[in-house]
Specification:
Layout lengths: L2 H15 L2 H21 L5 H23 L4 H15 L8 H15 L7 H12 L5 H13 L2
Helix pairs in contact: 1-2, 2-3, 2-4, 3-4, 5-6, 5-7, 6-7
Length: about 150
């Protein structure tokens, strides 16, 4: 069973349980997936679905940050719950130490020594770790490693 089918099955299960928050959250995610499929005129594979889910999770995370400043605790709580619902479909994220270990290997392999080599390092690391770490996190770690050499 692929990721999209899992989402659809979980949506049907949420509907049976009358879990409105999970139902609505999964509907939004599946709607985004279907929109991407229509735009690309082909069915998305698991990597494409995962990419859409990562965007949805990122949106929820940003929403939580923005809403905390407004004092709307009810909306903050809802956004946090949506974040948790969608996060369980994402693969386990690597720790900073694990990303650093991969980065050290690639830096040594390329003999990278300064920030001008960052593009080369990122070009190898991002595709390798794309489903396990956000590119922003990878970039931050690589930049620190290259600056501290």
């Amino acid at each position: 069973m692929n990721l999209k089918e899992t989402l659809e099955n979980d949506l049907h299960e949420a509907m049976r349980r009358k879990d409105e928050l999970t139902r609505d959250t999964l509907r939004i995610a599946l709607s985004s997936i279907k929109l991407a499929e229509v735009e690309s005129r082909k069915a998305l594979d698991d990597a494409g679905v995962l990419s859409i889910l990562q965007k949805e999770v990122k949106i929820r995370k940003e929403t939580v940050g923005e809403l905390q400043n407004t004092g709307r605790s009810d909306l903050v709580e809802k956004a946090k719950q949506e974040y948790e619902i969608l996060s369980k479909y994402l693969p386990v994220q690597l720790s900073d130490e694990e990303i650093e270990q991969f980065a050290h290997e690639v830096i040594a392999q390329l003999s990278a020594s300064n920030l001008s080599d960052m593009g080369k390092v990122m070009g190898i690391l991002v595709p390798k770790l794309s489903d396990k770490a956000a590119p922003e996190r990878i970039s931050k770690i690589v930049k620190n490693l290259l600056l501290n050499q």
